[in-house]
């Protein structure tokens, strides 16, 4: 699983990176929120561990930007802060943070929270797989949509998955359907 560590303090980012790598994760380090945002637009990270207070773009704003992205896989976001308190946590949760870790970071706690992230992301993947089970007619192969109407597979997929179709004929169907018609001519 890929983890992006974001902290403007090189000692803290080195510690977080080493702990995540020791736990078996592939780690990339960004020195601030802006650098992290650029990294997130170029590559897919499953987990972001970000310091709260950083110059240019803080962890809360980075989290808001991650949550505002559309059509991107879910990113589990962990905020690290040296300040606690209800208002602090509420602000982070409103930005979309999944979890929090207080400084100084305890290695066992980080490993446990990364385990939770992995479990949650696994459940999300499983849910997405279940969501793509389609009610399809055994005879005509049309799919029932959300309005309880039956539509062609092509229409359904183009509407729900932003895919387009080109049509062709597989060799088996060619031999079974097309070739007999050509032979009759």
The main pleated sheet reads as: 5 strands, parallel
Uncertain stretches: none
Our Rg estimate from Cα atoms comes to: 24 Å
What does the average pLDDT come to? 90
Strand order, sheet with most strands: 2-1-3-4-5
Q: Compute the number of strand runs.
A: 7
Structural class: alpha/beta
Silhouette: elongated
What is the CA-CA span between the terminal residues? 59 Å
* Assembly type: single chain
Content of β-strand:
15-25%
- Discrete helix count: 7
SSE topology string = EHEHEHEHEHEEHH
The helical percent reads 40-55%
Comma- or semicolon-separated keywords:
7 strands, two-stranded antiparallel sheet, alpha/beta
Verbal overview:
- With 185 residues, the chain is an alpha/beta fold.
- Helix content is 49%, strand content 16%.
- The protein contains seven helices and seven strands, in the order βαβαβαβαβαββαα.
- The protein has a five-stranded parallel beta sheet with strand order 2-1-3-4-5, sandwiched between helices. A two-stranded antiparallel ribbon has the order 6-7.
- Helix 3 links the parallel strand 3 and strand 4.
- Helix 2 packs parallel to helix 3.
- The protein is elongated.
- The protein starts with a strand and ends with a helix.
- The model has no long low-confidence stretch (mean pLDDT 90).
Secondary structure layout:
Elements: E1 2-6, H1 10-22, E2 26-30, H2 33-42, E3 47-51, H3 59-68, E4 76-81, H4 86-95, E5 99-102, H5 107-131, E6 143-144, E7 150-151, H6 153-161, H7 171-184
Parallel strand pairs: 1-2, 1-3, 3-4, 4-5
Antiparallel strand pairs: 6-7
């Amino acid at each position: 699983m890929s983890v992006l560590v974001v902290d403007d303090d090189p000692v803290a980012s080195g510690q977080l990176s080493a702990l995540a790598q020791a736990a078996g994760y592939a780690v990339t380090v960004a020195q601030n929120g802006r650098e992290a945002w650029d990294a997130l637009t170029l590559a897919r990270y499953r987990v972001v561990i970000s310091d709260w207070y950083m110059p240019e773009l803080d962890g809360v704003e980075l989290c808001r930007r991650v949550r505002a992205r559309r059509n991107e896989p879910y990113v589990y976001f962990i905020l690290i802060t040296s300040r606690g308190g209800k208002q602090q946590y509420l602000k982070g949760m409103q930005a979309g943070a999944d979890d929090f870790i207080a400084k100084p970071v305890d290695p066992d706690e980080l490993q446990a929270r990364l385990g939770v992230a992995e479990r949650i992301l696994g459940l999300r993947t499983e849910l997405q797989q279940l969501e793509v089970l389609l009610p399809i007619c055994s005879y005509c192969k049309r799919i029932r949509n959300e309005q309880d109407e039956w539509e062609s597979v092509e229409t359904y997929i183009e509407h729900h998955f932003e895919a387009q179709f080109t049509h062709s004929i597989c060799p088996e169907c060619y031999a079974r359907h097309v070739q007999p018609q050509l032979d009759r001519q």
